[in-house]
Design goal:
By secondary structure, this protein is mainly alpha-helical. It contains four helices and five strands, in the order H-E-E-H-E-E-E-H-H. It folds into two domains: 110 residues, no CATH class; 65 residues, no CATH class. The strands form two sheets. It has a three-stranded antiparallel beta sheet with strand order 3-4-5, with helices on one face. A two-stranded parallel ribbon has the order 1-2. Helix 3 packs across helix 4. The longest helix has 29 residues. The N terminus is likely disordered.
Length: 198
């Protein structure tokens, strides 16, 4: 009984070790693909992987690269076209966030040997803030107002709420709240105009 139990444990630990090594290999191979969010270009040393003219890795619906299924790419460093004649998804925070959530949900089962399900993108629209001059937004295909357009104060408020929500997700609720409070205090304390010194 003890021997069978030990062999079951060693079989399980061997399976976990191979899964872990597969994940570590995928992470280490993907670590070179980190690109700053301000740019869309990935590093140029990607070997024989299929890339676009901006050096973005071409991925399939499962977010695996087309030439090596052990490499996953999301966000700015990936280029994903859903459908045969569709244009690639834009390199926006909305796309990257949905891709990351998809991988977080399905990566543990992939490491255990199951196939990744295809990624589906839900377009919730986009917002552009022009500082104090105004804001504009197009509403996506999902939600209450499908395909609408907003501008002015409603768009500015929507942009601020979206920005603060991403900040809270990135830094955590309390730190995000402190950043918001510091930004609010600074908007009152800082002078509106800066004078050049001679």
């Amino acid at each position: 009984m003890i021997r069978s139990r030990n062999s079951a444990l060693s079989t399980r630990s061997a399976a976990q070790a191979s899964s872990a090594s597969r994940l570590i290999a995928a992470i280490s191979r993907c670590s070179l693909l980190r690109s700053p969010s301000a740019t869309v270009n990935a590093p140029t040393s990607l070997g024989d992987l299929e890339v676009t003219r901006n050096n973005q890795l071409v991925v399939g619906p499962t977010l695996q690269t087309t030439r090596d299924p052990h490499i996953l790419a999301v966000g700015d460093c990936s280029s994903l076209a859903l459908g045969r004649e569709a244009k690639p998804l834009p390199p926006t925070a909305q796309v990257a966030h949905q891709q990351a959530a998809h991988l977080i949900r399905h990566l543990p089962t992939w490491v255990k040997g199951r196939d990744l399900p295809p990624f589906t993108f839900r377009d919730f629209g986009s917002l552009v803030s022009l500082g104090g001059y105004g804001a504009y937004g197009s509403l996506g295909k999902f939600g209450l107002f499908k395909g609408g357009f907003i501008q002015g104060r409603v768009a500015q408020l929507s942009h601020v709420l979206l920005y603060r929500s991403y900040q809270s997700q990135l830094h955590g609720f309390w730190r995000g709240g402190l950043i918001w409070l510091a930004d609010t205090i600074n908007s009152y304390v800082r002078p509106k105009f800066r004078f050049a010194r001679d």
